[in-house]
């Protein structure tokens, strides 16, 4: 990108609208470098640079970075999309419990990103998460607990007085009160975020009655603003199931079939589907690209 800069005030020969469009195609590393060209290009690139925030459980810099952005009025209102990646390494327990706790302590900060309209929640695949079948249930519980915690704060259900995020496993990890303190900001009683897009990747194929009946989940799924819902379901397989197993046996968990049968009253309940304009469903092992599902049971307008 070559620019003839006579003066910083008149050196940009294209109107800002065109530069905004150009910046939308640039990688973040180049956007950050634009501030070295001139302050005008830096200010034009700033909204695109902070449009998407990526938060990873086991990246030590993620909690600190998110906290810094949440405290900056200049940066906070540029955020339109939040990507939460739960890459917990679970095999006979969490290997990096400190990182997991830092992530839980950081989650309440997403409440301050009032202009974000897209939320993406992604977990590791089961093949990455465990090596033994006896870890399946605990790993699945962890996923649902993380979903519930994230929904708790996005739905505007946070605790204003104590400013604490509930961690049901905290008692198992040396915290007797079962709660984790969060960084002190002005007011955690922010209203629910008006999400337009919700994407959940590697969703457990387990019908968790506790999750889908929780107040947090019901408030999220009843948001009239959500018009784009995308679910990628990760089917659990029995690692010891032989390819030569008798006909009629299944390598999948029994709960998987219940999960798909209950979709019309859980993730695809009428409260959320009635407002959808985009619905994406994918499960490679169960649906493939041609879902074996009677879509008529889902009340779509």
UniProtKB/TrEMBL annotation:
Entry superkingdom: Eukaryota
Annotated Gene3D superfamilies: 1.20.1280.50
Domain F-box residue range list: 8-57
Protein name: F-box protein
Upper classification of the organism: Eukaryota, Fungi, Dikarya, Ascomycota, Pezizomycotina
């Amino acid at each position: 990108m070559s620019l003839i800069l006579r003066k910083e005030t008149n050196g940009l020969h294209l109107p800002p609208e065109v530069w905004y469009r150009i910046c939308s195609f640039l990688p973040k590393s180049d956007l950050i470098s634009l501030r070295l060209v001139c302050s005008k290009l830096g200010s034009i690139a700033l909204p695109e640079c902070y449009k998407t925030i990526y938060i990873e459980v086991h990246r030590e810099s993620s909690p600190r970075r998110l906290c810094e952005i949440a405290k900056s009025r200049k940066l906070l209102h540029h955020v339109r999309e939040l990507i939460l990646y739960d890459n917990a390494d679970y095999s006979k327990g969490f290997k990096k419990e400190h990182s997991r706790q830092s992530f839980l302590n950081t989650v309440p900060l997403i409440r301050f990103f009032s202009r974000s309209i897209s939320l993406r929640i992604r977990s590791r695949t089961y093949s990455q998460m465990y090596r033994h079948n006896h870890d399946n249930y605990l790993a699945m519980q962890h996923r649902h607990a993380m979903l519930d915690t994230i929904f708790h704060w996005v739905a505007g259900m946070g605790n204003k007085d104590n400013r604490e995020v509930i961690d049901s496993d905290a008692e198992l990890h040396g915290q007797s009160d079962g709660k984790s303190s969060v960084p002190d900001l002005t007011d955690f009683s922010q209203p629910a975020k008006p999400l337009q897009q919700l994407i959940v990747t590697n969703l457990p194929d387990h019908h968790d009655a506790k999750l889908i009946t929780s107040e947090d989940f019901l408030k999220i799924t009843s948001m009239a603003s959500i018009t784009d819902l995308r679910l990628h379901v990760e089917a659990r397989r029995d690692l010891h199931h032989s390819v030569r197993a008798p006909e009629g046996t299944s390598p999948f968990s029994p709960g998987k079939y219940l999960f798909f049968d209950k979709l019309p009253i859980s993730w695809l309940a009428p409260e959320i589907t009635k407002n959808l304009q985009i619905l994406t469903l994918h499960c490679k092992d169960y649906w493939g690209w041609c879902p074996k599902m009677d879509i008529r049971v889902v009340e779509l307008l």
